[in-house]
């Protein structure tokens, strides 16, 4: 992805989700948010909008290329959680030999 493509994707994510870190939920200036690959490129992730989020530098750097959220997750304050983030965690748990029923019953909705 070249620089202009990154900026275009960042603008799309900002208009869709606002200027919040997808992991810690804090609000940041646009210049302080980075593109975050939910499924890291080193693990087969791509540059589609469905696989991208906006993250602050500390969250993005502390997560590295792990599939799990950074150590600061879940957020300390209530944030509007995007569907893709819930789906990522849900399917990660299913991938660890859990059934849909087991996963849903462990979560307190």
Write out key terms for the chains shown:
globular; 9% strand; 4 helices; DNA Binding (I), subunit A; single chain; two-stranded antiparallel ribbon; mainly alpha
The low-confidence runs, each spanning 5 or more residues with pLDDT under 50, are none
The major pleated sheet works out as: 2 strands, antiparallel
Annotated CATH topology of the domain at 3-77: DNA Binding (I), subunit A
The DSSP helix count reads 4
Give a description of the structure.
- The chain has four helices and two strands.
- It has 109 residues and is mainly alpha-helical.
- The protein has a domain at 3-77: Orthogonal Bundle (DNA Binding (I), subunit A), CATH 1.10.30.50.
- It has a two-stranded antiparallel sheet with strand order 1-2.
- It is globular, with a radius of gyration of 14 Å.
